[in-house]
Predict the 3D structure of the following.
Amino acid sequence: MDFTDVSLTSLRVFRTVAERGTFTAAALSLGYTQSAVSRQIASIERAAGAELLERRREGVRLTAAGRVVMRRATVVLDEIDAAARELSGLPEPGGTVRLGWVPSAGAHLVPEALASLRRSDPGLRVISREGTTPALARALRAGSIDLALLASAPPFRAPDDESPPLVLRTLTERSLCLAVPAEHPLARADFVDVADLRGQQWIASPSAGEDRLMGVWPGLDERPEIVHTARDWLAKLHLVAAGCGLTTVSRSLVSAAPPGVRILEVRGGPQELRRLSVARLPQPPTEAARRLEAALRAAAVGTEAAATSP
């Protein structure tokens, strides 16, 4: 094997493909054609003398050789980025950590943690982005983020079947709730009976590929009537406030609900739990990652208290 002719572009393309899960998604993210992405991957696999990505119908995943190359490529790319910061005159931060989070965590918990860190640890630099649980698990594997806030539902399986398993620590575990327009007949009681959800109109996330249909009550025994789709939780809640339908929400979003929305428990069926976990690779975390995780835990305790207060 000979890596002397491997370009930084090939390394970045390789990391993006591993993170995004498909050649098509990587091409869209990078602004390349799919054939250009394929050529870059072919060149780095020729240099490695091994297949680095296992091609499957649903996408790609790293092979054992691919994990070795990814680990080294991440070090190289991070060093190049650090050099670029120094050459541009930016001060080297006291610590940098990259965070990924699912949308429900971004509504309250992540801003709370980052605001706390700005006061207590101003030298810590956090770079964050939103994503789905499968996409963020891939980003952890690809080395493009250090920590991820991942969502799961019973039976709380691991976010992927890759080896070694990701380290997962639970931050919160709460019942799923229902957001109802304040003027809706269901809002007159202190809870909603699951039988009363038949025939309702729903506001849901668009369902595509790895994303589950979020916003419709799980286990509904009829085909739901979805009248609006939106990924953004705040947009969903404002649509509820406008009387446009119902949507499911995490209890952590209670404080983010706008006027005109009631957040209610649903009774009469199986309890629907949702868990939020912080995930990382199994190697020891950096000091910056430890400080960020501590801030996320403190914020989770605060949101738990706010969600359960009368």
Observations:
- The chain has three domains: 8-87, 95-171+274-308, 173-273.
- The domain at 173-273 is CATH 3.40.190.10 (D-Maltodextrin-Binding Protein; domain 2).
